[in-house]
User: Which sequence fits this backbone?
């Protein structure tokens, strides 16, 4: 989350420090369907219907009861949801910081004005290359006119994430994307392609040089802090020692309404969000995650940083004993209404 409005940031940080027992960020899937088919992505399909608005309202109401600080509407492609603005307005009505992640293709002046009216506070787009290719159509060539519309009409913060790791040939594209974002005065960052488990291979010399160049373009405190705490080791092929608070400080809620650790670790705890309790938050807060040393999912890392030096994790990772995706280990109560298939074996982008 990169909300720049100081009126939102200060209360968020105060709440994060004051209490460990509420979610800081929930990624809320409003539809699994997407209008694109990027080959690295494991978070979309072509057949799912949007989650009905009344169901979304019930999920948001319970997130509010859990005192969730921020919600990001995601997918799939959230702009495919016909009631997206109503979903955003519902979150804002509870005082929840509300953002969204989109590929940007469906943005028009009229849609941007509707997003303004809904109270949206931030929109994020990842741009993968300068020219579309077989891997991704999220290119600067296609999206530049959408970026100009956002520059001219958006009342919310716009954040552009340029991407490394698709191929060495495409590596310099990330610099051009970052420069264009700076030209339009959008906040910016660099993401790295990860595999289906959320981990990455060390960057090549060319990719590393590009990463450092984008860091110079961004020159943000957030980029510098995240680099020191997480990315420096990862891009050198090393592991990180940190406490992942997924399932507690960060929630990933799929289209079926089930809570998962993150988009890359779907299948546990698989409890409906409307049944999620403080007991669940406390349990997952203190639960080890074996995937964390090589994790690149920066939204989880960012939300876990507030508890970096407090709160032990003494419960072993339960997924190592789980035989079936979506079924908690023996002895753990389950309120799951559906089993979730494992993520497909294709990579994704850091931070999604």
Assistant:
């Amino acid at each position: 989350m990169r909300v720049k409005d100081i009126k939102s940031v200060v209360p968020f940080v105060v709440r994060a420090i004051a209490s460990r027992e509420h979610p800081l960020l929930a990624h809320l899937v409003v539809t699994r369907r997407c209008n694109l088919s990027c080959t690295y992505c494991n978070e979309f399909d072509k057949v799912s219907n949007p989650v009905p608005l009344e169901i979304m309202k019930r999920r948001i109401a319970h997130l509010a009861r859990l005192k969730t600080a921020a919600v990001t509407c995601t997918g799939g492609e959230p702009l495919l949801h016909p009631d997206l603005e109503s979903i955003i307005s519902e979150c804002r009505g509870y005082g929840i910081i509300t953002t969204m992640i989109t590929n940007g293709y469906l943005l028009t002046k009229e849609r941007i004005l509707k997003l303004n009216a809904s109270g949206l506070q931030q929109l994020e787009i990842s741009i993968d290359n300068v020219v579309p290719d077989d891997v991704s159509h999220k290119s600067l060539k296609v999206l530049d006119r959408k970026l100009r519309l956002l520059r001219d009409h958006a009342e919310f913060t716009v954040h552009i994430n340029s991407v490394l790791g698709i191929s060495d040939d495409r590596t310099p594209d990330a610099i051009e994307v970052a420069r264009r974002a700076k030209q339009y005065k959008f906040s910016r960052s660099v993401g790295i392609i990860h595999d289906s488990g959320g981990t990455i291979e060390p960057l090549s010399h060319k990719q590393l040089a590009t990463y450092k160049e984008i860091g110079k373009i961004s020159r943000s405190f957030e980029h510098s802090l995240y680099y020191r705490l997480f990315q420096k080791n990862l891009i050198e092929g090393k592991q990180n020692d940190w406490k992942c608070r997924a399932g507690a400080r960060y929630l990933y809620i799929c289209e079926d309404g089930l809570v998962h650790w993150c988009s890359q670790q779907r299948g546990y705890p698989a409890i409906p969000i409307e049944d999620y309790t403080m007991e669940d938050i406390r349990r997952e807060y203190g639960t080890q995650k074996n995937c964390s040393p090589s994790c690149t999912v920066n939204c989880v890392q960012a939300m876990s940083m507030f508890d970096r030096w407090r709160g032990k994790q003494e419960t072993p990772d339960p997924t190592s004993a789980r035989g079936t995706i979506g079924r908690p280990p023996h002895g753990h109560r389950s309120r799951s209404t559906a089993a979730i298939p494992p993520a497909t074996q294709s990579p994704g982008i850091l931070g999604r």
Q: What stands out?
A: Strands lie at 25-29, 70-74, 97-101, 122-127, 157-164, 187-194, 250-253, 258-260, 269-272, 348-349.
